[in-house]
Amino acid sequence: MAPVLSLAVYVLSDAEQEEHYLYPTSADATTLLSSLAGDPVVDDTLPPDKSAEELILAAQKTISGLWGHLNRLNEV
Fold first, then answer.
1. Which residues contact 70 (CB under 8 A, 6 or more apart)?
2. Cα-Cα-Cα-Cα dihedral sign, residues 59, 63, 67, 73
3. Other Cβ atoms within 10 Å of 68 Cβ, number
4. What is the maximum alpha-carbon separation in the chain?
5. pTM, to two decimals
6. In this model, does residue 2 exceed pLDDT 60?
7. Nearby residues of 12 by Cβ (< 8 Å), 6 or more positions away
8. How confident is the model over 45-67, as pLDDT tens digits?
9. How many CA atoms lie within 13 A of 65 on its CB side?
């Protein structure tokens, strides 16, 4: 299985950067990513109070879910 890495770049004020991000520079984040080793672990258990159908519906309401829906509409 190939690793997946997604990056997004946004211009934020210094105050917003300090409020939202753990790493002050991309070099700091890259250092952390480079140090990661081993096999990834995925917790695939459902929250005790949610069904698979509820989670699928919630995912479809996110921006990426809406974007995918709009793209499928354009394919028709």
1. none
2. positive
3. 13
4. 45
5. 0.34
6. no
7. 20
8. 888 898 989 888 887 777 777 77
9. 8
